[in-house]
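Q: Here's a chain of 472 amino acids. Please give me its 3D structure as C-alpha cells.
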Amino acid sequence: MDGRAIILDHLSENDEELTYIAKEIWDHPQVALQEEFASKLLADKLETAGFAISWGAGGMPTAFIAEWGAGAPIVGFLGEYDALPGLSQELTSEKSPIEAGGPGHGCGHNLFGTACMGSVLALKSAMERQGIEGRIRFYGCPAEETLVGKTFMARDGVFDDLDAAISWHPGDTNITWNGSSLAMNSFKVNFYGVAAHAGGSPWLGRSALDGVMLMDAGVNYMREHVPPESRIHSVVTSGGQAPNVVPAFAQVWYFVRAPQRAQVEEIFAWMQDIAKGAALMSGTRYEIEFITGCYDILPNAVMSDLLYEKMADVDDMRFTERERQFARELQATFPEGSVQRGFDWMQLSTSAALDPGTMEDPLWEGVYPHSPTPPLMGGSTEVADVSWITPTGQITTTCWPLGTPGHSWQTVASSGSSIGAKGMMFAAKTMALAGLDLLAKPDLLAAAKAEFQRARAGRTYVTPLPPDATPK
C-alpha cells in the first residue's frame, strides 16, 4: 500500500473519533489564552500516539508543540483552538445561546486544530510503514483570535528550523488561500490627567478623556494620508466614570492594518506623535501599551499549487440533502446580500469562471483552482508571521454555507454540525497528502524554499513585539 492510500485509510478509519474530538472542543469553548480543555485534549491524543510534547511556547500555558520522527526535513502543521466571546450558540438554525454571553466557536477553530492533529497522525502512519525520514510537528497555537499566539511563538524561535508549514481555515468553499493579508499592530494609549470637580473647579483638573478625543481627532485627519488599503479601528475602553468628575484616566484601543509590515510601522510611528501632541494639548501624560502585531502573508506558489493538487486528488466532499436544508435555513438568517458577496469574493479568488446559478447551492462541494492574482484579505492573521520564517501554504474548505458571516452565531452552528465535520476531514486528508510529498520529494521542497528566498528578497523576519511584551 502506498503512502497516499495509508493516509486516506487512516483518516477514514478515524473519522468518527476526530469528529467526536472536534465536537468536544465545540462543546467546551474557551477564549484566547484560556484553552485548557482543547489544548489538553489534543496534546493527550498526540502523546498517546508517540509524539513528544513540550508546553509553554511563547510564554503561553495553553501553547504546546508535539513532535515525532528524526532528522530532516521538518514539516510543521499549525493548529488553533480558541473560541470567541459572546457567540454561544446551540446546534440550531435559529439564534439560541447555550449560555447567555458565553463563548462559541465563531471561526471554526474546534475543526481547525482537530484537522491538523488528524493530519499528523495519518502522516506518521505513512512514514512508519513506508520508512520515510524526517520530522513532523503539530503546533498547538492559542489566541489566534487576538493575534497573539503564533506571534509570541515566532518571537521565541519555535518555527525557525522548519522546512515548511501547512495550515488551513474553515470556510465556505474549497480553495487554496494564496493571497496576502493585512499586517497589523494592536495597542492601547493610556492618558493620565488630574481629577477635579467638573462644575466647581474644572480649571484645577486635566481631562484624560480630552487626550483621547484629541488623539482620535488627529488620527482621523491622518487617514487621508495613509495608503488607501490601510485600516484604523478604535474603541474608547475607558472615558471616565461620571460627568461631574474630570477624568483622571482614559484609554483608547487601536488596530492599525496595512498591506505591508513597513507601512504599519510608519503609521504606528505617526500615531505615537499624535498621542504626544494630544497629551501636550490636553495637559496630560500618555503611555503606549503595545499588545501584539503581525505581518502580512508571504504567499508561496509552490505550496499553493501542491495543496490544490492534493485537494483535487481527494475531492470526496459530498453533502446530504438534510445538510443542505440546514444550510439553507442558516442562509435565511444572513444579512441581506451575504450570499452574493460570498460568490463575488470567490469569483475574485479563483481562476475558474463561476456560473451565478451555483449560488442556489448553499454547500459547495467542488474544488476550485486559485487565481494567479488573488484579492487582498482585509483581515489579519499571525499565520503570516510563520510565512516570513518558512514556506507556508494554506487552504480553506467548505464547513459553512456560502456567504456565512465571519465571527457569527451561524458560523458556530455550522462548525458544530456534520457540515463542519466533513470540511474538517477533507482538510485533514489534503494537508496530510501535501506533507507526505514535502517529506518524500526533495526537489519539491527545494523549489518551495527557493521561491521563499526570492519573495523575501533579502528581508528577514523581525518580531514586531517589544522586548518586554507578554501575552495577554
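Q: Can you summarize the key feature?
A: The first strand starts at residue 52 and ends at 55.
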